[in-house]
Amino acid sequence: MIQLSRSEIQALVSIDSGAIEAIRDAYVAVTDGRGNVPPVGYLGFPDSNGDCHIKYGYITGDPVFVVKIAAGFYDNPAKGLPSSNGIIVAISATTGQIVATLNDEGWLTDLRTGIGGAVATFAVCREDADQFLIVGTGTQARFQARAIASLASRPITISVWGRSRAKAEELKANLKEYGADVAVVDDLEVASRVADVIVTTTPSSQPLIMSDWVRAGTHLTAMGADSPGKQELDRKLVARANCLVVDIARQCLEHGEFAGAFADGLIKADDCTPLGAILSGKVVARRNPTDITIADLTGVATQDIAIARTVLERIPGLKL
Q1: What pLDDT does residue 177 have?
Q2: Which of 113, 149, 191, 303 is most buried, taking the most CB atoms under 10 A from its CB?
Q3: How does DSSP assign 171-199, residue by residue?
Q4: Under a CB-based contact definition with an 8 Å cutoff, are residues 295 and 288 in contact?
Q5: Domain-by-domain residue ranges, the chain?
Q6: How many alpha carbons fall within 13 Å on the CB side of residue 205?
Q7: What CATH fold (topology level) applies to the domain 2-109+302-313?
Q8: pTM of the prediction?
Q9: Contact between 307 and 108 (Cβ < 8 Å)
């Protein structure tokens, strides 16, 4: 059995073409019958502002299946600790033997989520979209900005908003080290009204983006709502959208960004379009430049399988 530390994993994978293609295929696997994705295990820790997700699954034909434990405790930065942590176990799909433990401390989850958000964004936004707004200043804001900058095939402008101007400036400085230039904005409403793409990355339980702030033609990718009680978008905005995109419908309607609007009867399950069907070319998401589109991404186990497999395939001499 191989045991990999976070630093060893970071030396093997990044926001690179192989990882991007693996994550893209992971979404398709959900819709083409290859993905076996059981319901997510969830533990909430409201007294500590934290939660834990247990995701596991298998992609037909893969040499391994994966079990992942990922925790998020959102007050940790004030304690000098990272907000996310976790571990991935890769198990042989032919013998059931444990192949590897990836003690990534949540880094692979952050990486695959960042790549996944950017993949979804560019699959659905207007082809001429060039004004990108990232809402939030935490770890996932960093990964989203880096992935968007990496996947962009045209010049774009990235702005960031956070409740703390100081944290937004820290994010700007951090991203500059990776070659991504971003501007800090102070007024979320004003920034939302001029954005072509809005990516939300917070654990908020109250809407941050209101419906009347969003103009025709805007795309939104909602990353933060991944457990009960979280919400970043006005429910009226969700109901107003012309196309609702999901990574996996049952998760999004149970505890994703769309859950509130679904519970209120503002949208139906049939209103949701699987991202994998869009990426495989079976469905066209944006039919009009003036459409408002929203992607609700709660994270699926096939992403964890894909990113873990990518790491293992890059270990010299390892036969899966």
Answers
A1: 85
A2: 303
A3: HHHHHHHTT--EEE-S-HHHHHHH-SEEE
A4: no
A5: 2-109+302-313, 126-299
A6: 7
A7: ornithine cyclodeaminase, domain 1 (3.30.1780)
A8: 0.93
A9: yes
| Residue whose entry in the numeric block shows the structure tokens 């960031």 | 160
> In the sheet where 182-184 sits, what is the strand order?
182-184, 157-161, 131-135, 197-200, 219-222, 293-296, 243-246, 272-274
Superfamily of domain 126-299: NAD(P)-binding Rossmann-like Domain (3.40.50.720)
**Nearest residue to 70 (alpha-carbon basis) of 117, 14, 27, 108:** 108
pLDDT block averages, 10 residues each, the chain of length 320: 96 97 97 94 93 94 95 91 92 96 95 98 97 96 96 94 94 88 95 98 95 98 90 97 96 94 96 97 94 97 96 91
132 vs 220: CA distance, rounded Å:
10
Asked whether the beta carbons of 228 and 258 are under 8 A apart, the reply is no
What is the identity of the amino acid at 53?
H
| DSSP structure class, residue 99 | E
For residues 94 and 52, give the distance between their C-alpha atoms in angstroms, rounded to a whole number: 29
Nearest to 62 by CA among 105, 87, 13, 26: 26
* CA nearest to 203, candidates 305, 135, 268: 135
